[in-house]
Amino acid sequence: MLQIIPPLALTALTLQLTTTYEQRYQCYTKAVANGERIIRAATFSLTIASIIRSYKRKSIELFFRNVVCCANKLTEEEEKLAWNEQHAQGADTLTKTITSMQGFYVKAAQIVASRPDSIPQEYADALSVFTDDNDPLPVEVIKEVIEEELLVQRGEKFDDVFEEFDEVPLGSASVAQVHHAVLTKKYGGGEVAVKVQRPSIEDKLMGDVANLKRIAKLFRELHVDLPVDYYAVFTELEEQLKDEFDFEVEAASMERMHNILTTDEKGAQRESPIVTPRSVPALVSKRVLVMDFLKGVPLSRASDMMKSKGIAPDGVEAKLFARKLLKSLTTAFGWSILESGFFHADAHPGNIFVLDDGRIGLIDFGQVKQVDRDYRETVAKVILALDERKSDDNDDDLHRIGNSTEGLDIELKDDAPAHGHAAIAMWLFDGSVETFPDGYDENEMSPNSPVKAMKEFPSDLVLLARSTVLVKGLATRFGVRWSLSQEWAPIARRVLKSNSGHIVEGSSQGTKLLRLKSWGKQKATKIVNYLPGPIKKRVLSA
Q1: Which residues face 176 on adjacent strands?
Q2: What sign does the CA torsion over 144, 145, 148, 149 have?
Q3: Count of Cβ atoms closer than 10 Å to residue 407 Cβ
Q4: Which residues contact 360 (CB under 8 A, 6 or more apart)?
Q5: 196 and 166 in contact (C-beta within 8 Å)?
Q6: How many CB atoms lie within 10 A of CB 392?
Q7: pLDDT tens figures, 208-264
Q8: How far apart are CA 54 and CA 388, in angstroms?
Q9: Residue 289, φ and ψ in degrees, nearest 5
Q10: Which of 168, 356, 432, 514 could serve as a FRET partner for 539 with CA atoms 20 to 30 Å apart?
Q11: Which residues are bridge partners to 291 per DSSP?
Q12: What is the pTM of this model?
């Protein structure tokens, strides 16, 4: 009898007899999730393969027209136009695929779009749509999550907490959706932003980033010419993404960042260069975060706002705004990276805000990064070496910059020119450099880009570089030459001076102690991640 039962039916019968309903449901949902992950991976991979094939066909077509059929040879302008059309087609195909799939592919698009100077303009324009609203969820779903996370356990109704709740979201990103609301007097009143996590999003996003890692690894093995090592980028983001699903951790990160920006190393109060929201402690759970509402528009919409006010993109007012924006972000990143080693790791034009009062705001602290004191002191030394150089081609200066940069664990390829480390430092921290050493090229698409000299991108450098390169990209977009090293030099000097008494440079004992401390911090971080939510929140905010 058993021999004639199909294998699948036999498996189903066995599960029915030996498992509970809950166990069977978990098996079913896991199977569906795995199946969806495979389909999503195949869909995206086939899209990328299709785009690559279209470029190969275009290359062959142009080769035959220019070399084989000389009579139909294109002019330089015609060939440029042909490639622009190819870029537009590729960008359109990629954008449609990401729009239909959503998930972490949107986050990847934001990363690429934040550097318009490193990709063809057609791709930058097409992918820029992913910095704002993406696939908003119905407000009924949002309210259900809020009730489940915050209200049911308290025995409260929606109207007990929210006097007003806007049904149209302020923004809808890959992990969460945000709505404007007004609290009742019981909770202090006032306007707030309510961040609600998308249901069942964690497995979907982690599957997406795993798919992107596989594709990026294949590109790396095939030596595909990309502006940065996206395998290293997605590997580091995969690690950071795990904490982005816990809004209690994010609330603690917001509070810590507020303290860093408003209190100097000696404990004295100072004015923050940017505005960051703070949470409403009584209204925070793992999947819901209620915080201050920042009145303004995201930087991704700032150009439209300027146009509506009659401000010319290349006019004086636009340049003044650009310098204020760059100064605010540069100071905020300088204080957080160099003074504490704790910084916002997911800044892009969608979560940088131009507030109604003219100040700059920064939201979304789901991804943050902590580097140890040894690492930030190394960054400080690189900054000073860059700032104190006599010229861009002085050999002694280049050696000093290069020696400092080696401390960032950057390993060069065997055939890299001598001053590769110095060129990488200039690329990372000084957008005012006009001529790079040893024939290196500032353009990341160039085969002579300093990024191409690295064997691989060190994990600690990935998110630090995202921050510095973001500022560099914004400066390029606004047509402003901007040097992070010049702006950060006073901070770097102060940090090195205040830390000089802790460890003697070059001391083997000091180095061992520093490594031991770094090892201990990594272990402690892993332990904290396993703590219950409320305890973890208290530890992280300490």
Answers
A1: 197
A2: negative
A3: 15
A4: 273, 274, 275, 324, 325, 328, 329, 352, 353, 354
A5: no
A6: 18
A7: 777 778 777 777 776 666 656 677 777 777 776 777 889 999 999 999 999 999 999
A8: 48
A9: -135, 115
A10: 514
A11: 193, 279
A12: 0.71
